[in-house]
Specification:
By secondary structure, this protein is α/β, with parallel strands linked by helices. It has one domain (2-179): Rossmann fold (3-Layer(aba) Sandwich), CATH 3.40.50.360. Helices cover 45% and strands 21% of the residues. It has helices at residues 15-29, 39-42, 55-66, 83-90, 115-127, 151-179, and strands spanning 2-7, 33-38, 69-75, 101-108, 131-140. A five-stranded parallel β-sheet has the order 2-1-3-4-5, sandwiched between helices. Helix 1 (15-29) packs across helix 6. The two termini are 20 Å apart.
Length: 180
């Protein structure tokens, strides 16, 4: 199974990307194929429903369509997720994500941040008929000092990956039953 990890940060020193890399490492240990896509590198034009999507958007939709699950990461900007991520999401067709497991994570500036970002992402992915897993991850810079997670945060990260794995296994079992 292929898991796509989308990084909604444009920052070259992105904490979100570092978190996604840690999730990627755990998923690879669990024998998943993974790919991180940095939204900022795609140079997607501002979404316009009446204009052609372009090669970058078509490529992204193909990657989304071929993946079995997702981890979506965004920094918290003013209590929400990044505009770059929202622009990329606007290119998704609803059926691309239908029933597919999605894990959500955010990197924040403060210890109590991130909930609005995660709630906003959860709302968007529910509207796209994705299966957002209950486990989520909000990590502040203080919990991720020098790109090393605190022990409590590391445990939460591991539970996040376990939750995604369980959702993927459930999806695979349900697909198998339907094919019988």
């Amino acid at each position: 199974m292929t898991i796509l990890l989308l990084n909604g940060s444009l920052n070259p020193a992105s904490t979100t990307k570092k978190l996604l890399e840690q999730v990627q490492t755990l998923l690879q240990k669990a024998k998943y194929e993974t790919e991180i896509i940095n939204i900022g590198e795609l140079e997607l034009p501002l979404f316009h429903p009446a204009q052609p999507a372009g090669a970058a958007a078509d490529w992204l939709r193909e990657r989304i369509d071929s993946a079995e699950g997702f981890v979506i990461g965004s920094p918290e900007y003013h209590g929400s997720y990044s505009g770059a991520l929202k622009n990329a999401i606007d290119y998704f067709d609803k059926d691309l994500l239908k029933g597919k497991p999605v894990g959500l994570l955010t990197s924040t500036g403060g210890l109590k941040g991130g909930i609005n970002t995660l709630n906003g992402l959860r709302t968007v992915f529910r509207s796209l008929s994705a299966h957002t897993i209950p486990q989520q991850l909000a990590v502040s810079r203080k919990e991720f000092k020098d790109f090393i997670l605190t022990p409590d945060c590391q445990k939460t990260l591991e539970q996040f990956v376990i939750g995604l794995d369980e959702a993927l296994q459930h999806q695979a079992a349900a697909a198998y039953i339907l094919l019988k």
